[in-house]
Amino acid sequence: MNIAVGADHRGIAAARNVVEKLRREGHQVSLSEGCDGPSCDYPERAFPVAKAVAAGEADRGILICGTGIGMSIAANKVAGVRAAVVHDELTAELSRSHNDANILCLSADLLGQRLIENIVDVFLRTSFEGGRHLRRVRKIGAIESGQDPAEVVEG
Fold first, then answer.
1. What are phi and psi of 130, to 5 degrees?
2. DSSP structural state of residue 101
3. 24-77 pLDDT per residue, tens
4. Which residues are catalytic?
5. What is the pLDDT of residue 34?
6. Selection from 57, 65, 137 nearest residue 96 by Cα
7. Could you tell me if 146 and 155 are in contact, meaning their C-beta atoms sit under 8 angstroms apart?
8. Where are the beta strands (DSSP E) in the chain?
9. In the CATH scheme, what is the homologous superfamily, with its name and number, of domain 2-128?
């Protein structure tokens, strides 16, 4: 799998460990870091990952900052991205199986490295269930294009 990873100054250590693990497992991984100095702005790290996922250049994305929240907000501004802040294995699984999340957002400050890696494993191995969930994901796409999601019909 081709995975784009991004991190700000608070998430870079955790991200580097995740990148090493994923590469050992045979994944193609790119890391967007680029902090010049003691801090960097998370939107600048989220954008290239979100853009790569939305364009199909990466199968999935992983973003790590202090809480995961800022990365998620920034990434979700890119059409076609469904970035989910996840704090455990269950929410990782449901973000994929029910919401077809394509970017995982994690907290470096609240989660230990072992839990982060477990969450990444679940996120990458879980498939989207489709079915009634596909209708809901299509409605999210309608919102992105300025349409009323209530007008989306089965198709």
1. 70, -140
2. -
3. 999 999 987 666 667 888 999 999 999 999 999 999 999 999 999 999 999 999
4. 65, 98
5. 62
6. 137
7. no
8. 2-7, 28-32, 60-65, 83-85, 103-107
9. Sugar-phosphate isomerase, RpiB/LacA/LacB (3.40.1400.10)
